[in-house]
Sequence to fold (526 residues):
Amino acid sequence: MLYVELLAQGLVQGSIYALVAVGLTLVYGLLRILHVAHAGLFTLGGYIGVLVTNATGSLFLALIVSMMVVGVLGMAIYRLCYQPILDKPPYVALIASIGLFIAMEEIYRIVFGPYGISYQNPPLQSSVEILGLSLRMGEVAVGGGTLVLIGALALFSTKTRFGTVWRATVTDPDMAESFGVDIIKVRYLNFFIGSALAAVAGVMVALLNNLVEPTMGSVPSYKALAIIVLGGLGDVRGTLLAALALGVIEAFGTIYLGNYLDRDAIAFAFLILVLMVRPQGLFGRA
Amino acid sequence: MMLQLKNANCGYGAFQAVHDLSLTMEQGKIFALLGPNGAGKSSTIMSIAGHVQLFSGSIIFDGDDISHLPARERVKRGIAVAPEGRRLFPDLTIEENLTVGGYCQSSEKEARNRDMVFALFPRLTERLKQPAGTLSGGEQQMLAIGRAMMTEPRFLMIDEVSLGLMPKMVDVCYNAIEHLKSQGVTILLVEQNTRRALEVADQVCVLESGNAVWQGAAEDARKDPALIEAFLGMAKDSAA
Fold:
């Protein structure tokens, strides 16, 4: 039973990693930029989620507002921060992104206060029994919500014309342009979807911890980097699997190795081990 | 006259691949660009497609100067490319690669073009759901040409038509090229297999280190094979 419980916990945590990391890997695939400020959008997603829920009493509405606002802000970051420096070497964008991320944390501190905010009436706190496991509704919502969103993303990218063109553009932007694709449009879409998914993750973490604080993006920022490296940079399917794998490994690791290593150390020990054997990542192509 | 390069200088960053190249391609004809590796053939193609920077000179298509148009506008005017190394979208299936090719077409035209591609390359219909990256070299070339045909081009450029293909596949590709010509499409070929290219070409240009060293009617080159071979500096008959 303990194993099943740990597995469930790991998958819930992994789902959150997945929602954050997908946006990061999409940006990397398209622009070859490590979009560190992505984790700042995740934090903002959490803030908007809590604020709108407290104001309206509807978590669902909060989720939608959070996705829209953060999605649009993601597009604005592309337009204002990355597009002007795309012809510079990639580390220029990386430095800009790190700077932006730090600035975002400070802005949250100034605007929302340094101590963080919580739900007045935390939603989805009741427990449910599933297959003999006692889970919080919040955890079920995280797992189920991730499944629905990733499923929708998969359907969009494989079953629609624009989704197909999007995947083509991520693998070879120049060739896609040769067939009349406006790659700027694809980039905007890319940032919108990736940022909106990160916002969902922010709302969900806020739900599980009942707390949003200015620095809640710092750990996800570097952990999501580790995940996209594990998944084979730019590979969405690999990133999803790597995120779930990391969630599960951390869940088991904290029980069996918790006396020696903390959660984040386990994650990075795993990354180092994998990269020693498979430098292209778990699922990347050699 | 369909397409004209006027004193084109192009390349990548500080590297100049093509020097002062002037070409005139007639409507409905096949133009062959020959020359050894690194002669600037692919750079010429990619500068016409809009992917290689034109330093100076101009590209005239249908009487309009398209030198400064982005690649996606050029394809809308009827310029398509099956580039060096095919550059298919490897994770996408055959079907999806064609979908991207037909991105700018109405769904009606898209369906018609797709039928035309399948009529020309029936083999592609057998593995519609297979990722392009897993296809054989010949199938990849068919798909690259098919994907370009999906744009309904009036001017089609094909790089390294026969490179790495089995003789049977080379025939399939050249049959397709002649069929397209019969439909009035103007074609620019890049080919290492000189003999094969000369069989179908109307006009020829030989490039060497980014310079045009010979231009003329393919007729003349066919009558006197030594002429082209002298310029190519290799007398081997690549019977690929």
Summary: The mean pLDDT of chain A is 91. The CA atoms of residues 26 and 234 of chain A lie 6 Å apart. The first helix of chain A runs from residue 2 to 31. Chain A has eleven helices and two strands.
